Amino acid sequence: MILPTVAADAVSQKTADSAPMVIFENVTKRYGDAAKPFTAVDGVDLTVDHGAITGIIGRSGAGKSTLVRLVNGLEKMTSGKVMVDGTDVGGLNDAGLRGLRRQVGMIFQHFNLLSSRTAFDNVALPLEIAGLDRAAIRAKVGPLLELVGLDDKAARYPSELSGGQKQRVGIARALATSPKLLLSDEATSALDPETTQSILSLLKQINAELDLTVLLITHEMEVVKAIASHVAVIDQGRIVEDGPTFDVFTAPKHETTRILLASTSGASLPEWLRSGLKAEPSAGDRILVRLTFFGATAFQPLTARLVTEIGGDVNILAGAIEEIAGEPFGTLVVAYPATPGVLDRAARFYAETGLSTEVLGYVA
Ligand SMILES: Nc1ncnc2c1ncn2[C@@H]1O[C@H](COP(=O)(O)OP(=O)(O)O)[C@@H](O)[C@H]1O
Ligand SMILES: [Mg+2]
């Protein structure tokens, strides 16, 4: 067990060098009164690394928005402690909270733009509130609109902009006070898949270029897979699993993670096949196996070899190569006769190639 120890040391050293941007310590948030309390966030311990894009994923009602609103003091926690870049949020007075909110930008699902203001004036708003003069505001807003690709839309009103453009205005506004942390609450949930991708690319770009830590809340696995290096899974107000996105998504430990993943995996089984699966084989049945590949280059040659080495009668039922946090990850679902000879040849092939396998069941 030498290797894991070395790896763990390397990680803890890295964290010690750069203090985390956000730390949740046993944080609980209850709504309602004492007679009918409702616990929306339940004893959360979580660390958000400086400079990273961290995703928090969970179903609707899991407590994601509540959790993220505790970070900039839009909600008051019932107990526990939230630290943002070394500041104890619970200990801030009103002036302290205003200062914190200049350091922490936020974007929303429905953009929350002022319809009576142009794109320029929406981005300018936080700067007006901060008391900057017109020249200083102009010097700041122009480059921000350029950064989000909207320099030609400065004079447009929100009603004249597409959803993606509105979110770009939202992002520019969130960046106006040069925050070190950006909170994103379902920022792409109202957008079509293509626009979602372009907004995610923009978030990735500003994360890298501005050294901006991003904490993003979503119910969509695709969003986390695309840009988050770390992910925490929340269910009924509790963090049930967290870690590097690649590890959590390729080897999910908690049932909630598996359920969230099942809806997006490119290699999930069609319903008619899943419903016909049996746990035990009968004579003449075929075995269904899910194979997992790390690295895209292995995919093609291994698929071809699998068919020849097992001996011809192999069906490929589903397959996909996905990218998780920038790393390729392939899944293949295959079926072949569950006879001793074939099973032996397959087992030898898996052992030799180091493929990771999971028996899904048997079909007649
Ligand atoms: N202001 C509030 N008062 C009472 N209950 C609330 C309030 N805000 C949220 N809740 C409840 O807390 C739970 C978590 O809500 P929320 O944090 O919005 O979840 P999510 O963002 O994951 O959908 C939900 O059951 C919701 O109804
Ligand atoms: Mg929400």
Q: What attributes does this structure have?
A:
364 residues, alpha/beta, Rossmann fold, 2 domains, six-stranded mixed beta sheet, 14 strands, 39% helix, elongated, disordered N terminus, binds magnesium ion
What do these coordinates show?
The protein is α/β, with parallel strands linked by helices. The protein is built from 13 helices and 14 strands. It has helices at 2-17, 64-71, 94-103, 119-129, 134-147, 163-175, 193-209, 221-227, 245-250, 255-262, 271-275, 299-310, 340-353, and strands spanning 22-31, 38-48, 53-57, 79-84, 87-88, 104-108, 181-185, 213-218, 230-235, 238-244, 286-294, 315-324, 327-337, 356-363. The radius of gyration is 24 Å and the shape is elongated. It starts with a helix and ends with a strand. It binds adenosine-5'-diphosphate (ADP) and magnesium ion.
Quick recap:
With 364 residues, the chain is an alpha/beta fold. Helices cover 39% and strands 28% of the residues.
Write the layout of secondary structure elements.
Elements lengths: L1 H16 L4 E10 L6 E11 L4 E5 L6 H8 L7 E6 L2 E2 L5 H10 E5 L10 H11 L4 H14 L15 H13 L5 E5 L7 H17 L3 E6 L2 H7 L2 E6 L2 E7 H6 L4 H8 L8 H5 L10 E9 L4 H12 L4 E10 L2 E11 L2 H14 L2 E8 L1
Parallel strand pairs: 3-8, 3-9, 6-7, 7-8
Antiparallel strand pairs: 1-2, 1-4, 4-5, 9-10, 11-13, 11-14, 12-13
Bound molecules: adenosine-5'-diphosphate and magnesium ion (MG).
